[in-house]
Amino acid sequence: MQAPVVYLNANTERQSGRQAQVSNITAAKAVADIIRTCLGPKAMLKMLLDPMGGIVLTNDGHAILREIDVSHPAAKSMIELSRTQDEEVGDGTTTVIILAGEILAQTFPYIEKNLHPVVIIQALKQALSDALEIIHSVSVPVDIENDEAMTKLIKASIGTKYVNKWSEKMCQLALQAVRTVKVEQGDYKEIDIKRYVRVEKIPGGEVTDSEVLDGILLNKDVTHPKMKRHIENPRVILLDCPLEYKKGESQTNIEITKEEDWNRILQIEEEQVKLICEQLLEFKPDVVITEKGVSDLAQHYLLKGGVTALRRVKKSDNNRIARATGATIVNRIEDLKESDVGINCGLFKVELIGDEYYTYLVKCKQPQSCSVLLRGASKDILNEIDRNLVDAMSVARNVMFEASLSPGGGATEMAVSVKLAEKAKSIEGVAQWPYQAVADAFEVIPRTLVQNCGGNAIRILSQLRAKHAEGQHTFGIDGENGKVVDMNEYGIWEPEVIKQQSIKTAVESACLLLRVDDIVSGVRQQQ
Ligand code: ADP
Ligand code: MG
């Protein structure tokens, strides 16, 4: 590997020491300020224009940051941060950024007072581990088999999103999809949403027409118009090899002088295709799906054998079909065995939706993978619904792994803030200040929730603080009208994992940015 070249000439930007930290903190705060208004149920949407001229309408913190173009390294690292959060737990991306920005803002005065960053970082780490304990102590277990409790929980997560008009529907979709792909064998538990849930967005229709299929939907038609488009209980064979004449290895050049030779070559091709089709037909499949091509000749033989073929299916789709139908993807037709044939699918059909053909492989027994068919007015709206649905699914997934809930609406953050503030008093030396700063920073979540619905932040926050000081840690903000409410009654609860992960990510990134004491640009500035 080549080492990066660092130009240290007069044109190079170099910021060191406090200057670097100040510039990082300012950048991080700027990013946090952009997405501040996107937190909570009264969140505003952002309309983002991408360089290709498209627009993105969203209030998802991560989706916003992904689109905006920033150049400051600290801002970039904040964006990376929300991506981590998105990948790890799928929700809480806005929270992370706001929290990290606020922690940096609160520790800023101590940087200015020349407190050494290492002292600050140590205090931050200490506060983090205390905060995690506090979160755990205010969390309560939940029964994941209870539909009502689960729906309520998912509703709280997407209540802040564009889809809240259809939240009942979305919760149902998310829960059903997650339950479909859940695999449990003894201690082993797997819920892989990314791989086994596919969201198929088809503009048109009503959002309420959306559904989770008990199988797979593909945007494909059969290869030959005469093939059957409706088969019950099909035998499915999945291939990742082409059904075509195999050409010789690496560019074969053949010189032919006699006409018979040419005919013979064509004949060989034909024989070979016929042979592989015959081998296939021995297994009496009804549907053959391949990731590669199917030649005209092969289509002819398959059609004669009463087989329906689909070609050029994506690898990821093929994997899902394999799970749903119980088939094994086969690489060489010679290796095909009876056990590779999928028999779990109840219905194969091809239907026209809008002006495109879609293939359904549905009514599967225990599909373990599924497609979610989303309908909606326009593409932009469908994209946002898709993002929200993914959030909802990850909430459901997280809770299934760790069935513990923390009070939402800023209640958990307020509890952490109040308890850390108490603890701060027992900390000796200068470390007390940055520790206290973290405690103050946690108030930013309830404060922002109040601000975003137009409430009086100072008054409401002191009311809330008073409640928490009395030990009533389920009190938080009603995000609709900015009043102090008990979450036991108001009913906004969030998975503990998400809360834990958001503060972990926020504090660690704040530490990372504080640890930087030099920004040296490796890019030569333009003259
Ligand atoms: P994120 O991307 O961080 O998940 P959201 O916009 O989803 O951002 O906001 C999540 C925050 O809003 C959480 O702290 C949650 O507790 C809070 N929240 C969600 N719904 C409500 C509500 N109805 N009232 C008050 N707070 C809410
Ligand atoms: Mg959320």
Give an overview in words.
It is found in: Cytoplasm. GO terms for molecular function: ATP binding; ATP hydrolysis activity; ATP-dependent protein folding chaperone; unfolded protein binding. One of its GO terms (cellular component) is chaperonin-containing T-complex. This protein has 527 residues and is α+β, with helices and mostly antiparallel strands. The protein has 3 domains: 14-141 and 410-520, GroEL-like equatorial domain (GROEL, domain 1, Orthogonal Bundle); 145-207 and 375-402, TCP-1-like chaperonin intermediate domain (GROEL, domain 2, 2-Layer Sandwich), CATH 3.30.260; 215-248 and 260-366, GroEL. It is 48% helix and 16% strand. It is built from 18 helices and 22 strands. The chain has helices at residues 17-35, 61-67, 73-88, 93-112, 117-138, 147-158, 167-181, 193-196, 259-281, 296-304, 315-325, 379-401, 411-424, 432-441, 444-452, 457-469, 487-490, 496-515; strands at 14-16, 46-49, 55-58, 140-141, 183-185, 188-190, 197-203, 211-212, 216-218, 230-232, 236-239, 287-290, 308-310, 329-330, 347-353, 356-362, 370-376, 404-407, 475-478, 483-486, 493-495, 518-520. Strands 9-16-15-10 form a 4-stranded antiparallel beta sheet. The protein has a 4-stranded parallel beta sheet with strand order 13-12-11-14, sandwiched between helices. A hairpin with a 5-residue loop joins strand 2 (46-49) and strand 3 (55-58). The protein is elongated and about 95 Å long. The model is unreliable at 1-12 (pLDDT under 50). Bound molecules: adenosine-5'-diphosphate (ADP) and magnesium ion. Magnesium ion is lined by residues 91, 157, 160, 391. Adenosine-5'-diphosphate (ADP) binds at residues 38-41, 43, 61, 91-95, 156, 159-160, 408-410, 445, 449, 477-479, 492, 494.
